[in-house]
Design goal:
The complex is a heterodimer of chains A (284) and B (671). By secondary structure, chain A is an alpha+beta fold. Chain A has eleven helices and seven strands. Classes of the chains: A alpha+beta (284), B alpha+beta (671).
């Protein structure tokens, strides 16, 4: 083995380590809500002042909906937040507004609508603990079962859907880095340990790519939640006298494919069907 | 002194009745057992009439027949002769057409003995039974067959072929009398025939010998029992101790439980062990207690006992048909040339009935949970001095005669007096002789407390009324512990037993608008592209890295670990110049892939010049090599300045640090 080989080895290892060192902080920096929150409008000083004992909303820039909500005017708050939702341009803001709309619906005594809003909020912020908690409560009040059935499939689905597309991209890239490290170790050191490192690299990369694959293979389009407590009858044609093909259960999420008068064509388990639009809650 | 269980000549019986397995005392049998030849035939070994010959004799007959056929001119039959016996024959079909013969092996049989019926069809290639024989009071087994037998007769070169199809079935009468067996309908070569023209008559008589040679009794049962009340059926059976047993079997028509009857575990059997007994020609034996020798009316019997416990779950009348005890006496053991000779005895037990009465509604308490019988109750606590919040185990044991396995134990959360305790769980252990229930209790209040009586409402079958059985109360000291007055305050319960109001509400709104852009991340194409690029580049990069050879090879590993080995060897060498030189040679050999001897006495400058001329990569410079040259020279000087046995210890000018410093300066290249 000569000096060139040695320098190759060192160079590859150094590159892999550098990649690991650079990517991880970058990802953490980009994904950290604390950093993002502290950036332009919420100085850390005011945040700490809130935590000391002042009323939660005092000093914070309340939006119109929040002010109305505090006064108990839930219908007006709902309207204000709907307008704000139309104007919102970021996923974080849409997650906040849909969460607040869920609270408004819950306070108005419409738990099924609240389930729809919370579910929509989770589309933007899948791991928001407050949203998950409120969703569980709203589902229970609406007579729906828990969102997670507890099965292995359900747990895996929850795991891969717990990341935003941006997080999933970073995670996948991190998986590439891990795989590259495994490749380098295998190439430089060889032997059983090298092969083990390569296998672990492939395994971790596969896991890291899971959320990205989930997002990439997810069908694009408007999603809707069945918000009728009795469920919705699936029909082959958009007519009330068309033959019923079964029921969509309350709380089920479907993909909207088409609209016709009062009917919506949805894609659900078993194919595409027409259901009454009034029983659907759009998660867009 | 206990007498061992009877030992049977298993080799003889194996030839006579099939394999038999005997039990060691106390060990239940799982296979094998004692079985009569008749039962053996019914269990799948049914033979044609007259076929009771040893296998060797039969094989010889076949051999003789084959030899005769080869010799020619002799009538040959492959099967034994048709047995003689009472029969009713019918000429079925047209003259010269196939004939059908239906006959009983024995027109008179003893109660319990198999009455075998055969249907023989001669001169037909195909036959099937359309309606099997029937008789009032008799139950025939499914018809088996046909067995096919063909024979050829060659007389003066003329060949004649005959075919016989044989069906067989059997019935086992359980009561004496005369039975008329209906004709059998068959389809023979496409034509329907019925045979015989007159019904067959079967006479069933009592086995008089059995009454003197066999013991077969039943323990008395009450005339009636109550629904849910257990009852035992105990049969004692045995044979004269002077008889040599070949097989033992019971025919019990009530053995398969009717609807509404459950079998429960009976008390433990005889201390002399158990033996497997075949019942109703089953393929697996049932355990029966061996009782040893019993003397009844001056006669000694080898006795066994079959005991089962049942519970009737619905009122009505239970009928138990006549039971038959089949005993086969071994008269002469069999051999290779002949089958064993046996004699069968059939003991009977009359049919009997049992009335099951319903539990009366009158006086039935609300708390009654299905207990029937006569019970006693006992209780205990695992400890009597506890802290508030500690768990105590209250064990209640009910024992006696009754359906101990089937009633529901009292629910202490509904029993008055247990308000000061929290019931965490119940451990229920069911046994036919006793019922043990362990309640996990937590005392909720401090001070001296009493664990109240645990009541159980039982329907007493002797007095025919409902009674309440209470355990004795127990006293308990509960010490107060700070903060443990209500150990379930956070678990949804209060000390006073009332459920606290559990309040759940949603998390409040987020009033602060989120400013700034969403965190950006690499897109899916970028991530997948990076993955693809890595997978494409990696094979080339790997090949480039490994151009110098396999990094996992022995020489590469030796080269990588040479520095550590040198440091260890120098540490061990101390100031011994011989060992230091050897360590250095070992190191240089590992680095260059040569044997250590190549570096003994080598001219380093010459080596460098040669390597440079060859164009090898990583050749150290002259200046870099100078240090190593000096170290080697110094070690050589120290080595050869004296004997190996008396080196210049402590006078070597180079030490371990200097050697390592020199080799470290050279690392990265050839060295």
């Amino acid at each position: 083995m000569n000096t060139r080989t040695r320098s190759w080895r060192l160079g590859l290892v150094a590159a892999a380590l550098a990649l690991c060192g650079v990517v991880a902080p970058a990802r953490a920096l980009a994904a950290s809500p604390a950093v993002a929150r502290a950036a332009p409008t919420s100085p850390p000083a005011s945040a700490s002042a809130q935590a000391v004992g002042a009323p939660l909303d005092e000093g914070a820039p309340l939006d119109e909906g929040a002010a109305l909500f505090r006064k108990g005017e839930f219908a007006a708050a709902d309207q204000a937040w709907r307008v704000a939702l139309e104007a919102a341009s970021t996923a974080r803001e849409r997650a906040r507004i849909t969460f607040n709309l869920g609270n408004t619906a819950y306070r108005r005594g419409a738990p099924l609508e609240a389930v729809g809003w919370y579910t929509a909020s989770l589309e933007y912020d899948p791991r928001a603990s407050a949203t998950l908690k409120n969703l569980a409560l709203a589902r229970a009040d609406a007579g729906l079962g828990p969102r997670d059935s507890g099965s292995l499939t359900s747990a895996l689905a929850r795991a891969v859907s717990a990341f935003t597309p941006a997080e999933a991209g970073w995670l996948a890239l991190f998986g590439v880095v891990l795989l590259a490290a495994g490749c380098v170790i295998e190439a430089v050191f060889g032997g059983a340990r090298g092969r083990l490192a390569l296998a672990v690299g492939f395994l971790l990369a596969g896991i890291a790519f899971g959320p990205l694959v989930h997002h990439a293979t997810r069908l694009e389009g408007e999603r809707a939640l069945v918000a009728d407590t009795k469920g919705l009858t699936k029909r082959a044609e958009p007519r009330g006298d068309a033959k019923g093909l079964g029921e969509l259960a309350p709380g089920e999420i479907v993909l909207v494919r088409d609209h016709y008068l009062d009917w919506t064509r949805v894609r659900a388990k078993g194919g595409e069907f027409w259901v009454l639009s009034a029983g659907l809650f759009s998660l867009r | 002194m206990q007498r061992p269980m009877p030992r049977f000549d298993s080799s003889q019986r194996a030839r006579a009745t099939g394999p038999v397995t005997l039990h060691a005392p106390g060990r239940p049998r799982t296979a094998g057992g004692l079985r009569t030849p008749a039962a053996q035939r019914r269990a799948g070994h049914q033979r044609s009439p007259g076929a009771r010959v040893s296998p060797l004799v039969r094989a010889c007959a076949w051999l003789a027949a084959a030899l005769g056929l080869l010799a020619g001119g002799t009538a040959v039959s492959a099967a034994p002769a048709t047995p003689l016996g009472p029969s009713a024959a019918l000429q079925g079909g047209r003259t010269g057409s196939p004939t059908v013969k239906v006959f009983l092996r024995n027109a008179t049989v003893r109660v319990g003995e198999a009455a075998q019926l055969f249907v023989e069809v001669d001169g037909a290639d195909r036959a099937e039974i359309l309606s099997p024989p029937t008789a009032k009071g008799l139950s025939f087994e499914p018809v088996s067959g046909p067995s096919r037998r063909e024979s050829y007769v060659i007389t003066n070169g003329r060949q004649q072929r005959s075919v016989r199809l044989t069906f067989s079935t059997a019935a086992r009468p359980t009561a004496k009398g005369t039975y008329e067996i209906s004709p059998v309908r068959l389809r023979v070569d496409g034509r329907e025939v019925s045979a015989p023209a007159e019904p067959l008559v079967l006479r069933v008589v009592e086995d008089l010998d059995a009454s003197s040679m066999l013991l077969f009794t039943r323990e008395e049962l009450p005339k009636s029992i109550f629904e849910g009340e257990p009852y035992d059926i105990e049969l004692r059976f045995g044979w004269d101790a002077t008889l040599r047993a070949a097989s033992v079997e019971l025919s019990l028509p009530w053995w398969n439980l009717p609807d509404g009857v459950l079998e429960v575990k009976a008390p433990v059997g005889s201390a002399r062990g158990q033996q497997g007994i075949f019942i109703n020609r089953a393929r697996t034996p049932e355990p029966a207690d061996y009782l040893g020798q019993l003397t009844v009316n001056g006669q000694t019997f080898e006795a066994m006992r079959l005991r089962r416990r049942y519970i009737a779950t619905r009122p009505g009348k239970l009928t138990f048909g006549q039971s038959v005890f089949e005993f086969s006496q071994l008269l002469r053991p069999g051999s290779v040339f002949e089958a064993a000779t046996t004699r069968e005895f059939y003991g009977t037990l009359p049919a009997f009935e049992l009335e099951v009465r319903p539990i009366p509604e009158e006086g039935r308490p609300f708390e009654w949970t299905g207990a029937v019988g006569r019970f006693t109750a006992d209780r205990s606590l695992d400890r009597r001095d506890v802290d508030v919040g500690d768990t105590i185990k209250l064990q209640v044991v009910w024992s006696g005669q009754g359906n101990l396995e089937f009633f529901e134990p009292p629910d202490l959360t509904r029993v008055a007096g247990f308000e000061g305790f929290r019931v965490l769980g119940v451990d229920d252990d069911r046994d036919p002789d006793r019922r043990r229930v362990v309640y996990d209790l937590v005392p909720l209040r401090a001070g001296d407390q009493t664990v109240p009586a645990v009541p159980l409402h039982v329907f007493d079958t002797h007095d025919e009324r409902f009674v309440r059985i209470d355990t004795e109360p127990l006293t308990l000291r509960v010490r107060k512990v700070d903060g443990a007055d209500d150990p379930f305050a956070n678990l949804g319960a209060k000390a006073d037993g009332s459920e606290p109001e559990v309040v759940l509400d949603i998390v409040d709104i987020d009033p602060t608008p989120k400013q700034g852009p969403d965190p950006a991340g690499p897109s899916a194409p970028l991530a997948f592209g990076a993955l693809g690029a890595l997978l494409v580049v990696w094979p080339f990069a790997r090949r480039a890295v490994r151009r110098g050879g396999d990094p996992a090879s022995a020489s590469a590993r030796r080269r990588r670990t040479a520095r550590r080995g040198l440091a260890r060897a120098l540490q061990a060498a101390g100031t011994d110049p011989w060992r230091m030189s050897e360590a250095l040679a070992e190191y240089l050999a590992a680095r260059t892939g040569e044997p250590p001897a190549a570096w003994v006495g080598r001219d380093l400058r010459e080596w460098r010049a040669t390597a440079e001329r060859r164009g090898a990569a990583g050749v150290p410079t002259e200046a870099a090599l100078q240090g190593l040259v000096e170290v080697v020279r110094e070690l050589d000087r120290a080595r050869f300045a004296a004997d190996r046995e008396r080196p210049l210890a402590g006078q070597v000018a180079v030490d371990r640090g200097r050697v390592l410093e020199v080799v470290d300066a050279l690392r990265g290249g050839l060295l």
